[in-house]
Structure formats: structure tokens, C-alpha cells
Amino acid sequence: MTDALLRPQDIPLWQAARPYLDVRNNDEHTLVAYGLAKSLMALTPEAEADIVLPAILLHDVGWKKIDPDLLLLAIGKNPTRKDLVRDHEVYGVQIARDILTAHGARDMDIPAILAIIDGHDTVKDAHSINDAIVKDADKGWRATAHGMRIIRSWYDWTVSEYIDAIEKVSLPFMLTDAGRAMAQGFVASIKAEQQLDTYMTGGLHA
Ligand SMILES: [Fe+2]
Ligand SMILES: [Fe+2]
Prior knowledge:
Layout: H1 11-17, H2 26-42, H3 49-58, H4 71-74, H5 83-103, H6 110-117, H7 129-140, H8 145-155, H9 159-169, H10 177-194, H11 196-200
């Protein structure tokens, strides 16, 4: 049987976050990134799950406050509204503070979680290993088959164009060895899949 994705204590946070994540596939992105964060934490014993996992669940709740018509201008290959990326972090901190106060465990380190949400996109380096794992899980998602399917549907990019963008705007900014290996592995699998026909049609001989 497959293990449950969410820890029991994270389910109330997820339920409270959902109304804020129903824009631009942020709900699906959040759940898959949560799974990536769990796998990165398994390789990083010093990371703190009670900070990393609530942070990844709530990191993008602020997009809900941004005009939906402008969302795609804030990201992509040549973003023209990068100011909105900062705005979603600021709104995200406000919303996440309310959610954590209402639904988080009593001993939760809310300031540490909010410090990760604040700057998760606009600050490229990390101020802690917890921050680095959240950032690598968030950006690493773009390299997954799921991230590729979702993001390509917004921009109408070919797989090659997509991989090109990931290699330029995501892979160089991975912060942990585990995150880098994970994202490079996802990209390698997509690139290999692109070449299957070349080797499977019987036309090539050693
Ligand atoms: Fe974000
Ligand atoms: Fe995100």
C-alpha cells in the first residue's frame, strides 16, 4: 500500500490552505512539492520536518491575492511582472501566519516557517538547511513530469523548449546536493525519453 503523502498533523494546514491554492494549479504543485521535500529530508537528517513541511504546504498561498490575468506575466522565460513574485511572498506570509496560528501545533516555530515563505522565490540563496530544502522542493517540481505537463499547458512550449528553460532558470539555482541530483535526474529522464525512438527503431547500429 502507498504511504499517505501528508502527515496527519499537516492535514488541517492543507485544508485551510486549499481555498488559497486553487489558482494556477498551485494545489497540485504544493502536494507534489511536499512529496519532494519529504524525500529530500530523508537525505538531510539535520532538517526539521516541523518547519519544512508546513512551509512547503503554505509557501504559495499568496498567489490567490494576485490578479489571475497577470499570473503568467510574473513567471516564465521572460517575466515582465517580477514585482508580483515579491507580492505573492508578502501576501503569503500574512495568510500563512493566520493559518498557522489557527491550525498549527502549539509549539510550532511560526517565525521560522514565515521566514522561509518570505523570500522563497525572490531570494536565491538559503538562510538555513530548512529554507534550502523548501526552495529545492519548490524549484525541483518544475523538473518533474508533473511540473512539465502543467507548465507546458500554460505557455504552449515544446518539450525541448521546456527542458531548455529548466536548465537555464531552475537547475543552476538548486541549493543542496540532494536537490540538484534529484532535479538533474528528472531532467535526464525526460531527455532520455525524448530520444527513445532514435534507439528503439532499429536504425542505429554500433
Ligand atoms: Fe512561490
Ligand atoms: Fe511554489
